[in-house]
Amino acid sequence: MKSVLVVCIGNICRSPMGQALLAAAAPGIEVTSAGTGALIGQQADPIARELMTARGLDIESHIARQINQAMCQSADLILTMDNEQRRYIEARFPFARGRVFRLTETLKLDVPDPYRRGQAAFDHAYRLIDAGATAWAERIKQFK
């Protein structure tokens, strides 16, 4: 296991936080992120940046990008925020089947999109993403 792709919709809220948290929890693994409907070229949401900064993680230089075939081919594991994104990736990139899972699969929950929903929504999403990143980091360590 060498690379993980974290996916949400816009690639400005959940997946940048997931990327940062998973990279911190699983050193030595290349963690990137993308969106299924990316707000291409935009920075991470200001609230997401503040949450990560408060935890000692820097996503200031993050720039949103659209998921593509090359990203899916190079990722050993693709983690989504919900089952809809998982189905989207598997339908669009069938070769990725078997490597696409929800970030919060062990919790059996989706991570709701906090975009434009305020601090409380971001705090909730953060807690779920952090729990998912921690769980996946433990699983990834078994494959190193």
Output the CATH topology.
Rossmann fold
Query: Largest sheet, if any?
Result: 4 strands, parallel
- From the alpha carbons, calculate the radius of gyration and give it in angstroms: 14 Å
- The run of helices and strands is EHEHHEHEH
Number of strands: 4
Description:
By secondary structure, the chain is of the alpha/beta class. It has a single domain, classed as Rossmann fold (3-Layer(aba) Sandwich). It is 42% helix and 13% strand. The chain has 5 helices and 4 strands. The chain has helices at residues 14-25, 46-54, 69-74, 83-92, 119-142, and strands at 3-8, 30-35, 77-80, 100-102. Strands 2-1-3-4 form a 4-stranded parallel beta sheet, with helices on both faces. Helix 1 (14-25) runs parallel beside helix 2 and helix 1 runs parallel beside helix 5. The longest helix is centred in the C-terminal third of the chain and has 24 residues, at 119-142. The radius of gyration is 14 Å and the shape is globular.
Task: Summarize this structure briefly.
The protein is an alpha/beta fold and 144 residues long. It has helices at 14-25, 46-54, 69-74, 83-92, 119-142; strands at 3-8, 30-35, 77-80, 100-102. The chain has a single domain (3-138), classed as 3-Layer(aba) Sandwich (Rossmann fold), CATH 3.40.50.2300.
